[in-house]
Amino acid sequence: MRILLFAPWIRLWHWTNLLFIAGLTVSGLSLHFADPKVGVIDFSLAQRIHTIFGIALSVSYLFFVVANFATGNWLQYVPRRGHVLSDMVRQLAYYLGGIFPGRPAPFPVTAQDHFNPLQKVSYLAVMFGVMPILIGTGLLYLWPELAPDRLFGVDGLLPIAVLHYVAAYLIVLFLVVHVYLCTCGRTVLAHFQTMMTGWHEEDDTGSP
Amino acid sequence: MKPAFSTIFAAIVFCLGTALLCPPAAIGDDFGLDDNDQDAARKVVQGNMECLSCHGAATSAAVPAVVIDPARPSGPSAGRTPDADERVARQKALVIDRGQYETSVHADVSCKDCHADPHGGQGVRVSCPQCHRTHDASVVPEVARSVHAAAHLPGFTCFSCHDPHNVRKAASLGTERTIAHRDNSMCLGCHGDDARYARFSAKPRPDLLAVHSWQPNPALHWAAVRCIDCHTPEKPGGAISHEILPKAKAERFCVDCHSTDSSLMTRLYRHEVETQRVNAAGFVHAYILTQAYVVGVTRNRYLDGASMILLAGVVVALAGHGLLRTLARRARKGRK
Predict the structure, then answer these.
(1) Which residues of A touch B314 (CB under 8 A)?
(2) Which residue of chain A comes nearest to B317, CA vs CA?
(3) Could you tell me if A107 and A87 are in contact, meaning their C-beta atoms sit under 8 angstroms apart?
(4) How far is CA A42 from CA A166, B251, B282, in A?
(5) pTM of the entire structure?
(6) CB contact under 8 A, B291 and A155
(7) Looking at this predicted complex, what is its ipTM?
(8) Angle, in degrees to the nearest 10, between helices A131-142 and A43-71
């Protein structure tokens, strides 16, 4: 049986968000690890890409937040009260054990409940914890005159830069794990197709 | 008729007084000094004090206030003629900031080494290269290749940029932001001022922000680095070249500064390179951090290393998980 899991707006946001994150990751790495001999992208070009994509990501994030609250989709990210840790452990145990012999997922996807507990907690942390830090520190980079002159005895931009790097790194780490877990569906491409079409074929593998 | 004893005595006193108060014209020699004179520095300072007693800003009250008081309104609107204004400007130029001179690199140079006989109508008697070519023979040819020389600017001399009474070594100025501010003020003296720019060129003064619009955040760059850090070629040995480059030849390769092998280390921060390159917290070129965070330069080795190791670990773990999944699926299919 097929169920409509993702509305067009969330699919559109998801793929544009991926584009922006990918562009920002490549350009950000080129800036942070800038080297005259082994530059991935020329520094000047990387700086322009990072600025444009950074602004685009900020706008798309604002859209994500507004749309989530307007549609009530944000409730999908809220873990089951009183069972947060135990649910996460069950899902983790499935990934570390049950998935290999092909046991049914402990939290199958339903029209009411799109995500498993690990997804809920990680999406909540990434989208409402890490992303605001990433975007906030990035915008301070665009308007450094708004940053404090000095922090902890050093240039005020240093703690902001370190925070930006750590936040960006966590997003990249999330992206790597997210893409891998998306291959754990009914077929390797099933979850990718769901995010393209919005439709999910019911099975017992659960969501990524 | 024999002169009266009192007249002879007065003449002797006048000659002695003149000899003591106004040193003779030929210096080095003027103060009877030579390089081996252990007391030379004290004698130079003492000799300069005589000049500075009138020409030093600290004693500017000795000069008629109507002429030199910078706080007084000037210009035709103040009821004075342009001639009077010009006189004010000329007289102001005769007074230097004593404090700045005494902390400048020329503090131990006698005034009369350059101003041979100022009250006798002779102006500056030496040109800068006369002394400076002995320290760095490359300066004169560099200036000759400079954009200012190529443009044949009328009346453009060393003094157009450098005030010899106020030259200090960069390392003595304190922070790199202070150095940048001070050095960039030299350039902005003309390139940021229409009237002064017009003294050398009939062309309209270029809009600096528009010219540097390719650069992200030009104002932030100008506060943190010097114009000459990009507008001079790299010079072996770490000194700064006097060959000022036009915009077409100026540095536009960002990574030249924005990398751990940054050319800032041979330029603005060259007097800092002796200090620790990586500090205890793992920051590369940590001494820059008190002044600026520079993308690509002031990285943290521990953070970079740990994040790459963790990422690699996660990728390997996921690859292993994927491999096990594939093998388990094949095993299940085989059993069916």
Answers:
(1) 173, 176-177
(2) A177
(3) yes
(4) 23, 15, 26
(5) 0.78
(6) yes
(7) 0.91
(8) 130
- Cβ of B253 within 8 Å of Cβ of A166? The answer is no
Chosen CATH of A2-201 out of 3.30.420.40, 1.20.1250.20, 1.20.210.10, 1.20.950.20: 1.20.950.20
As a whole number, the mean pLDDT across chain B is 78
Question: pLDDT tens-digit profile of B278-329?
Answer: 788 888 888 787 788 888 888 899 999 999 999 999 999 999 999 999 999 9
Nearest-CA distance B235 → chain A (Å):
19
Q: Provide the token pair at A109.
A: 């996807």
What stretches in chain A show pLDDT beneath 70? 39, 203-208
B95 sits in the region (left: phi over 0; alpha: psi -120 to 50; else beta) called beta
Note whether B261 contacts A162, CB cutoff 8 Å: no
From chain B, pick out residues whose CB is under 8 angstroms from the CB of A190. none
Q: How far, CA to CA in Å, does A20 sit from each of A56, A60, A136, A208, B216?
A: 7, 9, 16, 22, 20
Chain A residues touching B252 at Cβ < 8 A: 44
Residues of A in contact with B285 (CB under 8 A): none
* B232 pLDDT more than 50: yes
Q: Domain coordinates of chain A in residue numbers?
A: 2-201
